[in-house]
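Supplementary notes for students who missed Thursday's class. We covered one full example, reproduced here. Read the sequence, then the structure, then the short commentary at the end.
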Amino acid sequence: MASNKKKKKGQQGAKKAKAAKAAAQTTATAAKTAQSAPKAEEKGGKLKGLFKSEKKTANQPAKKKAKADKNAKPTFFGKVKNYFKAVRTEMRRVVWPTKKELGNYSVAVICSLIVVGVVIAILDMVIGEGLVLFSGLRG
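Structure (token representation):
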């Protein structure tokens, strides 16, 4: 019994050590990232160059035009085209049954229809006869 308690304490100590080691690694990684980050240039009291989005590139107008094209609403014919593309994609994903499976499914459906039809016919007769007995209309 005493040895089990010692094992549990040892396991808890190992877990704490692992957690402390992981925290130290995370802190070290964050420090390395901060050191490798580009230094901010101070011009006119503003910090520049801190963010990637502030970098100007030669093809920025082309990017804006591409974004505008993506955000534009499709026309009626564009919507129809997209619909048929989606239908085509979904039809490629369909797993069609084999002839044997199709035959089995058909037999199951036909049997189910017959059983449900018979049950409905019996219920109709029972309810009809019950109403006749209750109201006494025939006889």
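Commentary. The two ends are 89 Å apart (CA to CA). The beta strands are 41-43, 46-48. If anything here is unclear, bring it to office hours.
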